[in-house]
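Morning, I've got a small favour to ask if you have a moment. I've been staring at a protein lately and its backbone has me curious. You're getting the sequence in one-letter code plus the fold written as tokens. I've dropped the whole record in just underneath, so have a look:
=====
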Amino acid sequence: MSAGINSKTNESQDAKEPNADSIAMLFANLAKSDSIKRLFTFTLTAAKELSTSKQALDQLMDCFVRGAEKKWNSNADYDYLAYLFADLSKVSHPL
């Protein structure tokens, strides 16, 4: 799953990705699985224009906030990430 998260997180950050909302929907559905806990510790290089964090979860939050009303990517509003964050809030994880 790590390779998939890496690939899809990078794709979702692309300001020109035409499928960014579909990727956000995929993340929302993956949140139903216990293996999504890996997202709490997963790191990768972010698009410099989008995020300064190496944490994948922070980068997705930046997509959600900066992507509102299609400001980051004209093809996506990242609304489905709200479902991901809602489901993650129910998961117990170490700080």
In short: DSSP finds four helices and no strands in the chain. Residues 2-13 form the longest helix (12 residues). Residues 2-88 form one domain.
